[in-house]
Amino acid sequence: MSGERVASVVVDVAAEATDKPFDYLVPPELEEEVAIGSRVKVPFGPRKLVGYVVGFPAERDLRHLKPILDVMDLTPPLTPELVKLARWMARVYLCPWITALQAMVPAVLKGKYRRVLRLGPGFVSEGFIAGAEETLVRALQKKGELSLKEALELEGVSRSLVRRMAEKGHLVVEERVGDRTTRKRQTWISPAQPAAVLREAAGKLPKNALRQREMLHFFIEHREDILQPALLSRLGATKSTVDRLVDKGLLHREERETYRDPFAGRSFEKTEPLSLTPAQESVFQKIVAPLREGRHRTVLLHGVTGSGKTEIYLQAITETLNQGRQAIVLVPEISLTPQMVKRFKGRFGGRVAVLHSGLSHGERYDEWRKIRTGEVQVAIGARSAVFAPFPDLGLLVIDEEHENSYKQEEQPRYHAREVARRRCAEHGAVLVMGTATPSVESYYRARVGGYDWAQLTERVHNRPFPPVEVVDLREELRSGNRSIFSRSLKEQLQACVDRGDQAVLFLNRRGFSTFVLCRECGESVECPHCDISLTYHRTNQTLRCHYCGYTRQVPRECPSCGSSHIRYFGTGTQRVEEELARTMPGLRVIRMDVDTTRRKGAHERLLTAFGKGKADVLLGTQMIAKGLDFPGVTLVGVIAADTMLHLPDFRAAERTFQLLTQVSGRAGRHDKPGRVVIQTYSPEHYSIRMAAEQKAESFYREECRLRKRLRYPPFCRLFTLLFSHPDRVKLMQAGSRAARFLAPRLPEGGELLGPVSAPIPRIKDRYRIQIIIKYNNLTDEPTGFVETLRGLKAGLKDPELRLGIDRDGVSLSAGGDG
Ligand SMILES: Nc1ncnc2c1ncn2[C@@H]1O[C@H](COP(=O)(O)OP(=O)(O)OP(=O)(O)O)[C@@H](O)[C@H]1O
Ligand SMILES: [Zn+2]
Ligand SMILES: [Zn+2]
């Protein structure tokens, strides 16, 4: 047995006891395939498990080792760099190693599937073949397809033969999940004989074989391949007609693999680089200087809305590709709009893979595979695209770096910003974080020199910023206006529509959905399983819990006191829409919220309609706040700016400032000047005032001053421990025990707060409490305290108790206990 290699494998069981690599022998026949990052099947106790090869230990004891049973992919799904990254993530974000590894591969690779072989389009039967190759080809010709297992049972057929043939295109290896193919195939029909032969055959057909004759004539004229569905619809024929002609050897039918391109059928107009303005040029240089030297830098690009950041990304990517390296662009899911995709596809065409949540598993897998095989060099996508398996990453752009959605709220609870920094450091790549409204953390870090700082303070071609008017809603009430719209906003809206322009009305969803309130006792109707008000959905007259999905009919009487004086309260998008219809009849409104965009493609359809001028007003929630660029929009209205200010979250002011600044940036981006109206109950609040006055610098200074005084990030870091249990008493006991355990073990500068009731004290019948730990370590390196937390988690005895640990959570009111 000497000379055999040993591989360390992390198996796919996310449990404490299995959260470490196990050693296996690499059998000689798999020697060539097994690499770091390979997915393998291994025996584990009585079971067979899937796992990832994470290393080849030098020290080894071959006794008792079992062999690896199988290698599951021809190309390892992960690179050694990603395997290493996963190790780091497991430590930093307190998750099992396998959970981090799994986060990096497409969902298709996590399910059960079988591998099937077929002859590939590159196979030419005339070529000389012999031996095992011939055996395999003959078998495939006979059966059409074979499972990999069946193929390997054939005389002399080995994995390396299969791999070689696949590389030459003689074989296609396909992964199938259940019955669904994960690689899409399409059927192509082509003439199998010269035109003369077809003509002759057509003449010999019986009179009533009309369809067959038509089809033959079609191929006499069209000598090229055609997709079967296209052929059938063109001739109004059925598949059986094709079947007959194929049987007679007149037509040829072939299945070819295709990528499911979600943007198929859409062409993207090729765009050329714009010549950069001097301000853009100087930012561009800050990015490409380290890029050319292959030096890792992080650049915070603080550029006002419409300052031309995207154009800089595009040109920096071109530079990266010219160097033979690859680039990743991260955008928040909601701004991964067709508009955005168009800009990248327009510049880089087929060199771009797009990864977003609207894709089916199969489509996502296709895009991922293009990245893994090197077919594309640019990946654009939401958070998880940070794991795009490029071998030589040169540039990573995080657009709208302040966005919450870069933090994953479930295991592994990583922040894409941190993962990106880690990857870029490893590759000697440049990380560009662009935004008009940096997170306070990034702003501070750039200020103290941790990041290179690049600023764009002017819009392209000096287009002016729209003037912002702040309307005090309390004043409106005092003067008797009970409408959702202030007099000013209403006037502006009317004027805008009269000019033939368009308006965007923005409503913050959080804390502002419509709920039902009893006017006698003041109680709102709550979810029986979660301590939270139910939300009113007008379309089907129901009340729904947004946390657990509980739904009930709108009650006629108050569930608390029996009074019949209940009314809907709050301002949902639906209510704004109704009020618009009442006060400004004839106005054409497109509403965009979770309800109208649930269906696939709806988001895009609505935006396109608005862009084509099919509506006067675009009314929506967060999802319309950023990225949109419509020339016709000259008015932006914010219905209520302060709904977020009152959330129990130290980032409330930051979020308010960011949102208002972003929303305001949607007006007057082109030739026409724009204006903004912000309605609020707290006009004097600094976040609202400074957003309106466009004083970013002042806002960040003020916010840093407050955070420093109250000791919040970036002046400390946080762990949030969320405990939940169906039994409130047991939960409280567990919380106190945990606090007692942790108190003497805190890290440097540690401070333990709690346990206190979580912002939402009960969800799905589980009570929730939290402990917050502040500490000083401002580097990303895991501390000994992480081990303490692991110890705490491992030591939980009560199977009903759940503990979720979040490092640097972005929202104190969210967070799970998984
Ligand atoms: N150098 C340039 N010359 C001419 N037009 C430009 C130039 N750079 C950008 N633009 C145009 O200016 C507009 C704003 O640019 P871009 O969308 O790149 O800005 P941005 O900073 O990414 O905006 P936001 O963050 O607000 O979405 C776009 O219509 C873009 O085509
Ligand atoms: Zn509920
Ligand atoms: Zn009541």
Question: What does this 3D model show about the protein?
Answer:
Helices cover 32% and strands 23% of the residues. It is of the alpha/beta class. The protein has five domains: 6-109, 3-Layer(aba) Sandwich (GIY-YIG endonuclease); 113-177; 278-462, P-loop containing nucleotide triphosphate hydrolases (Rossmann fold); 468-512 and 571-706, Rossmann fold (3-Layer(aba) Sandwich); 717-807, Ribosomal protein S10 (Alpha-Beta Plaits, 2-Layer Sandwich), CATH 3.30.70. A seven-stranded parallel β-sheet has the order 15-16-14-17-18-13-19, sandwiched between helices. It has a six-stranded parallel β-sheet with strand order 20-30-29-21-28-27, with helices on both faces. The chain has a five-stranded antiparallel β-sheet with strand order 2-1-4-3-5. A hairpin with a 6-residue loop joins strand 24 and strand 25 (551-553). Helix 20 runs parallel beside helix 21. The model has no long low-confidence stretch (mean pLDDT 84). It binds adenosine-5'-triphosphate and zinc ion (2 copies). One zinc ion is lined by residues 518, 520-521, 523, 558, 560-561, 563.
